[in-house]
Amino acid sequence: MVQRLYPKRCRSSLAETVANLEELLTEILLRVPAKPLLRFKCVSKHWLSLISDPKFRHRHTLQNPNSPISAVFPDRSTDFSFIPFPPDHNHISARWNPLEVIANQYGDDIYIMHSCNGLILCRPLGAPSVTKYKYIRLRLEVGGISILLSTGKILSATNGGVYCNGAIHWVGSYSDMSYFHIDEERVGFVESTLPCYQTLHSYEKKWYEREYRYFMESSGGLLHLIDIYKPFLTNFEVLEMGRDYSGWFVKYHVDLYPLCTAFPNLPYGEFVVLFLDRDENEEDGGLSLLLHSPGNVISCNLKSKTFKSFELTTDERLLVDHHNFMYKETLACV
Question: Does pTM surpass 0.85?
Answer without folding.
Answer: no
